[in-house]
Write a structure and sequence with these properties.
single chain; 2 domains
C-alpha cells in the first residue's frame, strides 16, 4: 500500500511532496493490520482532483468512503476546498487510507507542527529536515491546581445527573451522562496517573486506548468496572465503581497538582447517591410488584 501511495505521487506532477502522520509514523505505537495510512499529499492545486472523482480508484476497490470537508460544506459550514481536502477510504483488501490533499504552500507549516510526521517524498525541498517522529505532541501534561480542582468538581457534581437519570428510569440520559460527561474527569485522572508513572513522557493513546497496557492490573480491573450494560443495577454499580477509582487516583494526584482532595464533596455526594440509589431500587421494586398478575 505504501509503495502504491508513493508510486502514485511520483508519477503525478501535481503532487509535490508526501508525508506520513499518525500511528504508522510513531515507532512506539503497536503495529497491527488495522492501522490507518494517514497520508498528506502536498499538491499544486486541488481543483483538478475534485473535478475527477474517479482518480482515487488507483488505490483499490472501495468498500466505503467519507469526505468530511464535503459533508461539512453540505451542512452549511465554511470550507476552503482550495486549501485542503480529505478522503477517508476503506478498501476491500482491508487497508484504510486517510488521504489529505494540502495546497503545497501550507505543507511546511503542517509538517513542522505535527511531531508524528515522516517525510516520504519531497520533489521540491518544501519541507526542512525534521526531528525523528515521536508522539510527544500527545504526552500527558502535569496537572495544575486549577485543572485538578475543576476535574474533581465536575466529577462529583455531574454524578448526581447519572443518579437522577437512573431514578427516573431514563436510560439514554443516564448513559450519556455517565459515559460522555462523568467519564471525562475520570479519564483526566487516569491520564495524570499514567503520566506521573512515566515522567509525563507518555501518551495514553486516543480515547485512552492504551490504558490497559500502561496501568497496573488492579487499576485496570477497577476501570473496567466503570462500564456497564443497560440494566439498572449494573449502571448503579458502575457509577460507584467510578467513584471508588476516582477517589483512589485523585487522592494520589492532588498533592502532585499542588491541591487537596475534596473529601467533603466526596463524602456528601456519596451519601446522597447512596440515598438516591436506595430510593430508586425501592421504587422499581414497588412498580414491578404492582404489574404482576
Amino acid at each position: 500500500m505504501l509503495e502504491l501511495i508513493l508510486r502514485t505521487a511520483k508519477t503525478d506532477e501535481r503532487i509535490r511532496a508526501v508525508f506520513l502522520n499518525g500511528s504508522r509514523a510513531n515507532p512506539a505505537a503497536p503495529k497491527d493490520r488495522f492501522q490507518d495510512f494517514d497520508i498528506v499529499y502536498a499538491v499544486t492545486e486541488t481543483a483538478s482532483f475534485l473535478a475527477d472523482p474517479e482518480w482515487i480508484s488507483v488505490f483499490g476497490e472501495l468498500i466505503m468512503m467519507q469526505e468530511p470537508d464535503r459533508m461539512d460544506h453540505l451542512r452549511g459550514q465554511k470550507v476552503d476546498f482550495g486549501t485542503s481536502y480529505s478522503y477517508l477510504m476503506l478498501f476491500s483488501d482491508g487497508n484504510r487510507l486517510d488521504l489529505r490533499l494540502l495546497q503545497k504552500d501550507n505543507a511546511r507549516r503542517a509538517a513542522l507542527t505535527e511531531s508524528q510526521t515522516v517525510v516520504l517524498l519531497d520533489k521540491d525541498g518544501i519541507i526542512p529536515p525534521l526531528q525523528p517522529a515521536t508522539d510527544r505532541d500527545y504526552w500527558v501534561s502535569p496537572p495544575t491546581p486549577a485543572a485538578f480542582n475543576a476535574a474533581a468538581n465536575e466529577f462529583f457534581w455531574c454524578s448526581q445527573n447519572v443518579a437522577k437519570g437512573l431514578w427516573r428510569d431514563e436510560l439514554p440520559y443516564a448513559k450519556a451522562m455517565m459515559d460522555s460527561v462523568v467519564r471525562v474527569p475520570l479519564d483526566a485522572m487516569m491520564h495524570w496517573h499514567i503520566g506521573h508513572q512515566y515522567g509525563y513522557e507518555i501518551s495514553p493513546g486516543k480515547m485512552g486506548k492504551y490504558y490497559k497496557q500502561l496501568t497496573s492490573p488492579d487499576v485496570w480491573r477497577m476501570y473496567e468496572q466503570t462500564y456497564a450494560g443497560s440494566s439498572h443495577s449494573e449502571m448503579w454499580d458502575s457509577l460507584f465503581a467510578a467513584i471508588t477509582l476516582f477517589r483512589k487516583l485523585a487522592a494520589e494526584i492532588a498533592p502532585l497538582a499542588g491541591s487537596v482532595y475534596p473529601d467533603q464533596d466526596d463524602c456528601r455526594m456519596t451519601r446522597y447517591l447512596e440515598a438516591v440509589r436506595s430510593d430508586s431500587v425501592s421504587r422499581r421494586q414497588c412498580r414491578d410488584s404492582s404489574t404482576r398478575p
